[in-house]
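queue> holo job accepted (magnesium ion)
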Amino acid sequence: METGTTGVAAAAAPAGPLHSHTLNYHHSHYPPSQHHAILSSTSILIIIISGISVIVLVLIFLIMAILRRIKSAKTRSTSFKDNGCVNNNSCRFSSHHTITFTSSPDVRGGCLYGSNLGHKSPRKHGVVQVFTYKELEVATDGFSETKVIGRGAYGVVYKGILADGTVAAIKMLHRQGKQGERAFRIEVDLLSRLHSPYLVELLGYCADQHHRLLIFEFMSNGALQNLLHHKQSQPLDWGTRLQIALDCARALEFLHEHTIPAVIHRDFKCSNILLDENFHAKVSDFGFAKMGSEKINGQISTRVMGTAGYLAPEYASTGMLTTKSDVYSYGMVLLQLLTGRIPVDTKRPPGEHVLVSWALPRLTNREKVGEMVDPALRGLYSRKDLIQVAAIAAMCVQPEPDYRPLMTDVVQSLIPLVKNLS
Ligand SMILES: Nc1ncnc2c1ncn2[C@@H]1O[C@H](COP(=O)(O)OP(=O)(O)OP(=O)(O)O)[C@@H](O)[C@H]1O
Ligand SMILES: [Mg+2]
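queue> job finished
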C-alpha cells in the first residue's frame, strides 16, 4: 500500500525540487532501505498478531454458538417431552402466522399447530385445554351410545363430564384426510383466539394419534334446527325468535367487523346455531371458515363449501366468497325463524319448494307478509315487528351481494325490536 501510494505520488510529482520535497514527506530519520526493513518486520508482526486474534475471536464465537445450540436443543426436547411429543417435524405445522400448540399429552406422531391471526391471546381463565383420548373416553362412559346428543356429517357429538366436573359437548370427528385435518385445525386455531359471548366456546381439543376431538361448552337447548323444525319440541315464541336473530347477527358482526382479519363463517345455518339454558344463541362449527386475509379484490376465490339452501347465489355459482355470503345465509336463517320452514322442502306444493323464491315476493308485501308466518306462533307476534324483520330478511337474501346490508346494520335494526319486547 505504502509503496503504491509513494509510487502514485512519485508518478504524479513533477521532476526537480518538488521531487525531494516528496521524499521529505515521509519524515524519515533512517536511510530508505533500513526504514523499509524495520517497517516490513513491524507490519509482519502486526499482521501475525492480528491474524491470531481474529482466529481466536472466530473460535470463541464458534464455541459460543455451538454451546447455545446445544442448550436450546435440550430445552426444546424437554418441552416436547413434557407434551408427550418427543420426536420430529410432524409435531409442528407451519402456516402463514405460526405459533406452536401443544398436542395431547400422549400424542406420539401428530401434534398440533396454530396460527396467530393478530387476535388477543387465549382467555386468561379458560385456556383451551389439551385432552387425551383416554380422558375423553372416561368423560363419555367409553363413548357410550347413551351419551350421543347429535350426529352431523362430520362426526358424532357426545355429552360428557370432564374430570373437573364441567359438562361438555364432545365432538368426535370422522373426517379423514387433508380436508378433515384442515377443518380441525381451523376450528382450533380460530376458536382459541376468537372470544365472544355469541360464539360457542371451545374448551379443548384432542389430537391423540389419529383421533381428532373438539370439546365445546354444552348448550343445553341444542340446535335451533331441532327447536324450529322438530314437532316434538315446544314452539319458540316470537320474542325468543327475535332474541335469537339478534344474537346471531351479533355473532356475524363480531366475525366480519370486529375481527382482524375478518372471518367468513361459510356454514352459517340453523344446525350451527346452539341455544343455552336461557335460549341465548351462539354460533358453532368453524371448520369451513375463511379469513379475510385471503382476499383478492375484496373476494376470496375458493372451493364452494357449505350447505345447499343457505349458499349465496354468487358464491354457489362462482366460488367467489365475501362476508356478504354469510349475510345471505343469515337471511335464510331469518326466513326460517319467520316461517318455520326449511330452505328446500320438496314435500310442499309446487311453487313452495324453495323457501327464498316463495318468501321473497311476500316479504315486502304488507298484505301478504302475514301469510308466511310460522303457524306454530298461533298469531302471537307483533305485526309491526314482523314487517321490519321481513324487510331485513328481504335485504339479506338479495341476489346482488352489494345490496345486502352489513351485519352491523342488521344488529342496529334489531336492537330496538328486542328492547321493546322487555
Ligand atoms: N356444544 C353443543 N352443545 C349441545 N349440543 C350440541 C353441541 N354441539 C353440537 N350439538 C348437537 O349435535 C348435533 C350435531 O352437531 P354437528 O355440528 O356435528 O352437526 P350438524 O351441525 O347438525 O350438521 P353438519 O354436519 O352439517 O354441520 C347438533 O345438531 C346439536 O344438536
Ligand atoms: Mg354443526
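queue> Residues 152, 271-272, 284-285 surround magnesium ion (ligand 2) (CB under 6 Å).
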